[in-house]
Amino acid sequence: MADKPSDKSIKKQVPSSERTICEATRQMLDKARRDGVILDLDRGYDMKPCPIGVESACCKHCYMGPCRLNPRDPYKKVGVCGATIDTIMARNFGRNVATGSASHNDHGRHILGLFRNIVEGKTRDFTIDDTMKLERVATSIGIETEGREIYDVAKELCDELEKTFSNVDGEMPFTKRVPEATLEQWRKDDIVPRGAMVEVMELMSRTHIGCDQDYNNLIKQISRTALADGWGGSMVATELSDIMFGTPSPTLAEVNMGVLKEDHVNIIVHGHEPAMFEGMLAAVGDSFYIEEARAKGAKGINLVGMCCSGAEMMSRHGVPHAGNFGSTEAVVVTGAVDAMVVDIQCIKQGLAEVAKCYDTHLITTNPRCHIEGATHIEFDEQDPRTCTDQILTKAITRYAGRKHPVEIPKMTQTGVHGFTHEYIEYMLGGSFRGSYTPLNENIINGRIRGVAGVVGCTNPKVQQDSVHVALVKELIKNDVLVLQTGCSQIALAKAGLLTPEAAPLAGPGLAEVCETVGIPPVLGLGSCVDNTRILIAASAMVEAGGLGSSLADLPVAGCAPEWMSEKALAIGQYFVASGVYTIFGIGFPTIKETKFHDLLFDGLEKQGYGKWGTAKDPVEIARMMIAHIDKKRKELGIDKSRERVLVDMSDRRDIA
User: Which terminal CB of the chain, N or C, has fewer other CB atoms within 10 Å?
Assistant: First the structure.
């Protein structure tokens, strides 16, 4: 066990109920405190952020500084080089976006590499699962599919999508999916993304000391780099993952720590690479290892997910999910986790110390993410069993030699997961008349007020999950249909809002639509890269007609209520640049009443884009989103109230 916390640190501890609304995580936080193990939830409470850094009023981009400006009087002085507060904030924001975009694009490039190896026959453990999706994606970017062999189409798709990363001029392939009016706006302002590598490189170059020092010019490259994420690497990752591993469709799955089984070997996979999880899913079904586990006294092997790769596998295969980012350390405290297997992104280094305290194997599998103190077993997509077999052996051995008492919170919630833009189209219109027109018509007639994307992380600065849940309850109560991805989706699943039975919590119009179609008022779309499903759905709404000609016309809004990563800023900026009002909770790295802040929070919208917003209270956030949706409804001329009438079966068929 770790050293017992000092008396001083014990006095600073707040009740676990103030750190999280997740009862399972609260139970494990209490246990960790008894065991003398300090978790991120307590570390986050004890950490006091720099008041200058948190508002992005410092610059560390050269060593004449670092330069620290006063957030309360930001124009009183400038940096050593003469950089103003607006230049400093724009540079800092730009570098955040560059890192977030690079992270998602690196993931997308890796997925494309796996796809190419499948097409070229170099990888035989994975294959093309969804040929219909392959043809649909190829057609969307102008590739002819009629009468051609599937692998010929796949080869051309590989070559075309390679431009997403390698182009130095021209336009990214998936920009062909952008509504024409939105694309023309991008072309006019010269922010259409070319290739991800050149966009990230140029943004990093522009933010170097002595380069671009006009925040109005910097925001253009910031937007272009963010768009290279949403309409580039992230979209490549989502679409190709569907093609290789299967496009999700609604499926029931359990979430929360109760999915662990004391009498089984428990293996958690946590991260963002679906191939690693798919490899583990195949391996745990091997009869040899099942018998090995039984020989050691276990009833079987229990594979569960966490964070985003867990959300993908839950959506595709119904694999149980143990919890979101805020619970990744707490779940180890159960003593039931025999191996925590991780790859990239959102992996806390603190996991190594917590795992050590409970003799849990923490195993890294990706060359881009090693952790000091963890065991590294590299996952090779051309030979996955070499990695997965070693993991199984270690986990089974640990089960046989468990030293610590096992305490598993007896809490699970069942929800419907696995919605996609394709399935939304199908459920509204069926196989032969799939269309977003019924959704648009129900927005126009007022049954559905608008659509909100509520996405993103959890952050120990606030009570885990609390803002997500309170915000979404307020939105659906006001007839706003909610789409979810990432850790937010798990928060709402634990709260029981991802079932059709949650429809009565919605306003009368949304509830009527949900009950007619048989869907929850909150639709889970998968992992954080799957935010691109929302972009494609929004584009389909524009194409269906009646709600304007660009993404900026739609009565929609987005929010990341408990964001924490640079990826979140990249996601937010690609939604803003696409035309969506996007609100972040927690706080935002700009200073109010500065020119750069005013550009992000007002000026971009005046230029024809979306805009940023920020607030901490969930009800306030909801009211801001609803006010924006109502503003867009008024601009579209669909704000007139309509008399509500009882509907007969004919009306219900029209709704569907």
Answer: N
Distance CA 241, CA 111 (A): 7
Supply the DSSP string of 220-286, one letter for each residue.
HHHHHHHHHIIIIIHHHHHHHHHHHH-----EEEEESGGG--TTSEEEEEESS-HHHHHHHHHHTT-
For β-strands 450-454 and 480-484, DSSP reports them as parallel
Alpha carbons 573 and 580: distance in angstroms, whole number: 9
pLDDT beneath 50: ranges in the chain: 1-11, 642-649, 651-653, 655-656
pLDDT for res 432: 63
Confidence at residue 476, expressed as pLDDT on a 0 to 100 scale: 98
Instruction: Please check whether residue 590 is in contact with residue 89, taking contact to mean a CB–CB distance below 8 angstroms.
Output: yes
Query: Residue 243's pLDDT is what?
Result: 98
Q: E strands within 541-653?
A: 556-560, 581-584, 612-614
CATH number listed for the domain at residues 251-400: 3.40.50.2030
Q: Of all residues in the chain, what percent are helix, strand and coil, respectively (each to 5)? A: 50, 10, 40
What DSSP letter does each residue of 391-446 carry, written as one string? HHHHHHHHHHT--S--------EEEEE---HHHHHHHHHTTTS--SHHHHHHHHTT
Q: Tell me how far apart the alpha carbons of residues 279 and 66 are, in angstroms, rounded to a whole number.
A: 46
| Most distant CA atoms of the chain, gap in Å | 74
Question: Which residue, 352, 281, 334, is CA-closest to 312?
Answer: 281
Domain 76-245 = CATH 3.30.70.260: no
Element (H, E) at 376: strand 375-376
CATH number belonging to domain 422-655: 3.40.50.2030
Sequence length of the chain is 656
Name residue 414's beta-bridge partners: 254
Cβ contact 584:459 at 8 Å: no
The Cα 397–Cα 168 span in angstroms is 51
CA 466 to chain centre: 17
